[in-house]
Amino acid sequence: MIAAVVPAYNAAPTLKPLLGELAHYIAKEDIVVVDDGSTDETGAVAGKAGVRVIRHDRNRGKGAALRSGFESIQRQQRYEAVLTIDADLQHSPKDIPTFLEAWERGTFDMLIGYRRKIGTGMPLHRMLSNSITSLLVSARTGRMIKDSQSGFRLISSSVLSSMVMESEGFEAETEVLIRAALRGFRIGFVPIATIYSDAGSHMTHWQTTKKFLSVLLKEY
Fold it and tell me: Residue 84 in contact with residue 3, Cβ under 8 Å?
C-alpha cells in the first residue's frame, strides 16, 4: 500500500485541483497534507477534500513538513512506500502511473521524477541550478543523479526508517537522497512532465544554496 505526503505552504489556490487529481490514484485516507503554518486557507481546503491534515503552528520549512508527514505515515506501519508531491501544481498526478509501474518491478528503493530541460520552458536559472546541483550530488554519492531537485518521489518505508531527517528547509530532499545513496539503497528515475507556472517560489536562493552546500559536505 502506498501513501502520499503533500507539503503545503500558502497553497490554497492550487491545492484543491491537485488533491482532486491525486485522489484518482491514491485513496483520500492515504493522503496526508502538511499545512506548514500557512496564513491562507490551505488547511481548510485540505480538510474539505477529505484527506488527513497535519498543521504546523508556524512556517518551519519544507523539510520539517515532509518529516511530519513521514512520521505520521510510518506510525501506521502499513505502507510500503510514500509518494511525495508538491502542492503548487508543478507536478502532475497523471505521472503517478509511471512511478507505480516502475515500483511494481521491484528494482528500486527510491524513484525520483526527472524533468527534461531543453525545449520545455524551464527557466534558464532553474536549468543551470538543476544541472549543477545534480552534478554535485552525483559526485558526492558516486551515482548518476538525473534530477536532484525534484520533489516528486516514491520512497520505500525501508529508506525512511533507516534515517532521521535533520534538515528543515528545501535542502532536506538532498539530504534524503545522499543518505539513501550512501546506505546503498537502489535509486531510479522516471520521466515526468516539466511544468512551470507564474507562481513565485518560497525558496530564498542564497539561504537555500548555503544549506545545500552544508548538506552536500556533511559527513554521514
Answer: no
